[in-house]
Amino acid sequence: xxxxxxxxxxxxxxxxxxxxxxxxxxxxxxxxxxxxxxxxxxxxxxxxxxxxxxxxxxxxxxxxxxxxxxxxxxxxxxxxxxxxxxxxxxxxxxxxxxxxxxxxxxxxxxxxxxxxxxxxxxxxxxxxxxxxxxxxxxxxxxxxxxx
Length: 147
Fold this sequence. Notes:
By secondary structure, the chain is mainly α.
């Protein structure tokens, strides 16, 4: 079979298989459902937990490399532990409560009970990690209070 006939046969076969020529269709506009307040807070808590985990891993690596002392590492890890504990409490509240109306007051009550102190005897490097985790905690608080 000559090449031009083969191509024509394949082209016609493809059109028939696809139902002939495609007709343009109008698509319905896509609507985006806004995230619920509980979802927004859960996302902020997830970012907080991931940030604490990354900071913890980094501080351990910095200590192993001799960039920060074991004492400073211990101080920072204790601080990160306080934040991680708060994040776990938030997750427990969210899992236990089916509605935002019940969940929010519990989260609002939890926030002031979390005291984060890192101390002043840390290096600039350590302070940067502590500040990053503190900023994530602040962002979480704002997420709760803005909902």
